[in-house]
Amino acid sequence: MKFKLTTLLLVTFVTTFAQKWQPAGEKMKTRWAAEITPENVWQEYPRPQFERSDWMNLNGLWNYSILKKNLAQPKKYQGEILVPFCVESSLSGVMGEVKPDDRIWYKRTFEIPTDWSKKNVILNFEAVDYSTTVFVNGAVVGAHKGAYDRFSFDITEYLTGKGEQELVVCVDDPSSFGSQPRGKQQMPQEGIWYTPVSGIWQTVWMETVSPEAFLKEAKLVPDIDEKTIAVTPVLNKSLKPEYKVEAVVSFQGKEVAKTEIPANITGLIDIPNPELWSTDAPNLYNLSLKLFNKAGEKIDEVQSYFGMRKISLGNHKGTKYLFLNNQPVFQYGPLDQGWWPDGLHTPPSDEAMKYDIEMTKKMGFNMIRKHIKVEPDRWFYHCDKLGMLVWQDMPSGMVVIPKTGNERPEHVQHVRPNGPDLNVRNEDAQQFELELRRMIDIHYNSPSIVMWVPFNEGWGQYTTCRIAKMVKDYDPTRLVNAVSGWALRNCGDVYDIHTYQTEVRIPPASLDRASVIGEYGGIGYPIETNLWNPEMRNWGYQTYHSEKELLDAYIYKFNQIVEMKKTKGLSAAVYTQTTDVEGEVNGLITYDREVIKIPVDKLNELHSVLYQE
Q1: How many other C-beta atoms lie within 10 A of the C-beta of residue 162?
Q2: Strand blocks (E) in 93-237
Q3: DSSP string covering 88-111, please?
């Protein structure tokens, strides 16, 4: 009876606690918002390519305060926030504003499971925007700068044995008043610039590892020509080769290869008769990595996966062309901003995030250009599983908006095609390049990513060809789009123009680079019942007011792409865009994901001609 009463009280407490949270504001929500609770929010394992069995999710309700930077940590917090949604979002339950002189404080408690007592505890943050300091039980355990890359701290020595542990996080975010990489965030929001994102916006979690040593990461490099996968298991410390890693490769449940690799050394594994990863057949191999110490004891194990695929340039019909697995493949996809009306940078759920990719695939696209935003690992996982090629942009920055907030941002003014690159401060360049390398490091193993895009339309663009070479040297397995649109330079693997005119411009053919259209279309169709803010200017590059007009305009532009592919050597094109975003109504789907503006089957039928030789 006592056990039942305790259980009942606990359930009552949890239910009452959960009822405190609800989405903030009256702006549009997606259908997935109604399914969210503090108990079920983003419970999926956040790193599908590096998965351990022992972990704890810390998403849910935290305490929060927004104070001026000159004030100390609050003794009493202002309210509760639903992590991992940012402060400005509806789903956070706050929908507040964070100014450049503000600081966000987060606080929660947690308990360590008893079976973790002899292990080290790693605290992981998948993404926090922007400058973060973390405290455990009152002690600073570490700090990090960057809005789109994950970071971790070993908090073992800061834990106090049994019972509650206190976790405090403070975050500064200069938003668009700073020079940091931030993509399309702007204060105030207008036009092609969207509501800022501040604070925690991806999963917070803990895992256990051996205090002796553990696998920090693994670099995987497939080679379809040699029929091998190069595996480099990297430990958290430099150890002698007596520490071994057993690598087991399997496909569809059957073991394909098994080998032993010294720690921190690259090992080649033969993959006989490899099942290639492609858009039509996204075959994935499972990879198990087990770390053994000098005594032969297993001290760590992670599960991963990889795809056997190759992206390259090749000669096709007299021009350079994009190749996949040594075959010419026309790449066609939407510009994807990755913004949500209720979660902003954070999709309401994993299911919602997957929906966008699935609909893109059903529409007959084989590629997505992820536009100046880096998604959670699980987004790339779904692209890997579904067979979706990805052009991954680096979030732009390094231009400061005047502090009045009324002027148009300087980076709206495009750098002239033949003009000089911007002059940027050394510290800004160093931070940009650090975050660029981190983006590549974190997502290196994802087979879906086929191209890196360091710069877009001159925004924060500097020493373009040096950066392009740096990226190519850092990752020679993928193509580099030195700059997409406007401020073009004679470097990189593709020649990329943007063309939003009704008559689509033709990119010049090149003997050493593939010709692509990095953005075109942008046809607006506002649907009155599905607008984020009916009172604002809702716009497209050309705007129509019926489904028929939209379809006719789309077909007219699309047919020009088809003709360029047939006669001008065009290798790829990116249509703007997947969904409406705030005041932009040029999406194929409304911002709330409720209305698909052109029938899916019609789009699929249209697009199929692009993949026929």
Answers
A1: 10
A2: 102-111, 120-125, 128-129, 131-136, 139-145, 151-154, 164-172, 199-200, 204-209, 215-223, 228-235
A3: TSTTTT------TTEEEEEEEEEE
Burial 489-522 (b: 16+ CB within 10 A, else e): bebbbbbbbbbbeeebebbebeeebbbbbbbbbb
pLDDT score, position 3 = 34
Q: Is a pLDDT exceeding 60 seen at residue 543?
A: yes
Integer CA distances (angstroms), 287 to 251, 256, 273, 290, in order: 9, 10, 17, 10
CB 591 within 8 A of CB 542: no
Domains of the chain (ranges, CATH numbers): 2-209 (2.60.120.260), 215-306 (2.60.40.10), 311-608 (3.20.20.80)
| DSSP-derived secondary structure letter, 431 | H
In the structure encoding, which two tokens stand for residue 512, read together?
A: 């050493």
Distance, CA of 429 to chain centre: 21
What secondary structure does DSSP assign to 512-562, as a single string?
Answer: SSEEEEEEEE-EE---GGG-S-TTS--B-SEE-SSHHHHHHHHHHHHHHHH
Compute how many other C-beta atoms are within 10 angstroms of the C-beta atom of residue 20.
11
Mean pLDDT of the 549-566 span: 97
pLDDT tens-place string over residues 199-216? 999 999 999 999 999 999
**Nearest to 247, CA basis, from 235, 261, 236:** 261
Q: What is the DSSP letter of 505?
A: P
pLDDT tens, residue by residue, 325-381:
999 999 999 999 999 999 999 999 999 999 999 999 999 999 999 999 999 999 999
Tokens standing for residue 56: 């704890």
How far is Cα 533 from Cα 525, in angstroms, rounded to an integer? 14
Over range 507-536, report the average pLDDT. 93
| Strand 204-209 versus strand 55-57 pairing type | antiparallel
Q: How confident is the model at residue 487, as a pLDDT?
A: 83
What is the Cα–Cα distance from 377 to 46, expressed in whole angstroms? Answer: 7
Q: Residue 302, SS3?
A: strand
Compute the mean pLDDT over every residue in the chain, rounded to the nearest whole number. 92
Whether residue 5 is predicted with pLDDT greater than 50 in this model: the reply is no
Whether 181 contacts 439, CB under 8 Å: no
Q: Map tokens 């065009």 to a residue.
A: 570
Tell me what percent of the chain is helix, strand and coil, each rounded to the nearest 5. Answer: 20, 35, 45
In the predicted model, what is the mean pLDDT of residues 536-555?
A: 95
User: Is 128's pLDDT higher than 70?
Assistant: yes
416-427 residues labelled b (16+ CB within 10 A) or e (exposed):
eeeeebbebeee
CA distances from 123 to 141, 171, 503, 610 (A): 10, 16, 53, 46
Provide the 10 A C-beta neighbour count for residue 241. Answer: 11
Contact 382, 354 (CB under 8 A): yes
Determine phi and psi for 592, rounding to 5 degrees.
Answer: -85, 5
- Examine the pLDDT at 405 and tell me if it is beyond 80: no
Q: Cis omega (within 30 of 0) on the bond before 84?
A: yes
Q: Which helix (H) or strand (E) holds 382?
A: helix 377-386
What is the C-alpha separation between 459 and 483, in angstroms, rounded?
A: 10
Lowest mean per-residue pLDDT among 42-51, 182-191, 276-285 = 182-191
pLDDT of residue 420: 63
